[in-house]
Amino acid sequence: MVEKKPGLYLDPGEKVGLTMALTMLVVFFALIVYAAKGLKIDVPTCITDVEPFQTGKLIKHSDKRYELHILARMWLFDFNQGATEIKIPAGSVVDIFVTSKDVVHGVHINNTNFNLMAIPGTVGYMRVKFEHPGVYHVVCHEFCGVGHHAMQGKIIVH
Ligand code: CUA
Questions:
Q1: Which fold has domain 45-157?
Q2: Which regions of 20-133 does DSSP assign to beta strands (E)?
Q3: Distances from the Cα of 12 to the Cαs of 18, 23, 75, 110, in angstroms?
Q4: 98 CB less than 6 Å from ligand 1?
Q5: Which tens digit of pLDDT belongs to each residue from 37-76?
Q6: Taking the domains of the chain in order of start, what are their residue ranges?
Q7: Rounded to two decimals, what is the model's pTM?
Q8: Helix H segments across 34-150?
Q9: Is 142 in the pocket of ligand 1 (CB under 6 A)?
Q10: Is 128's C-beta closer than 6 angstroms to any atom of ligand 1?
């Protein structure tokens, strides 16, 4: 009779499986670091330095760099001092912050990856580059009351 040594016994198949799983974890982590640092892809976040705001604001940092504070409220998107439409030049990189004044709204900018919730008391963030001219419709995709269907805005890229 073969006596097993005390301690952890791993089947050779288990060793292969664990090695593959650990290798995949390392590869995935490396890819995340590469995407963030190498490709400079920003991951959307709800942890920002910006305090929840009470009015929309478009801040121009340079010709192609903007900061947009979107205030969602029943039932419109305030992009800039109450304006529901803004114009920016093609090729602009826009740091977009979003919050809500009342209930939870959803914010989706058509033809971009921007899709965040607007939650009272928190500020969501994502960076968007508007490469192509056109009208980018901003719609609410979270039911927020009787005016939900009409809650929309426009980002005009010229
Ligand atoms: Cu705001 Cu639906």
A1: Immunoglobulin-like (2.60.40)
A2: 57-62, 65-73, 76-78, 85-88, 92-100, 105-109, 115-118, 124-130
A3: 10, 16, 61, 51
A4: no
A5: 888 777 777 778 888 999 999 999 999 999 999 999 999 9
A6: 11-41, 45-157
A7: 0.77
A8: none
A9: yes
A10: no
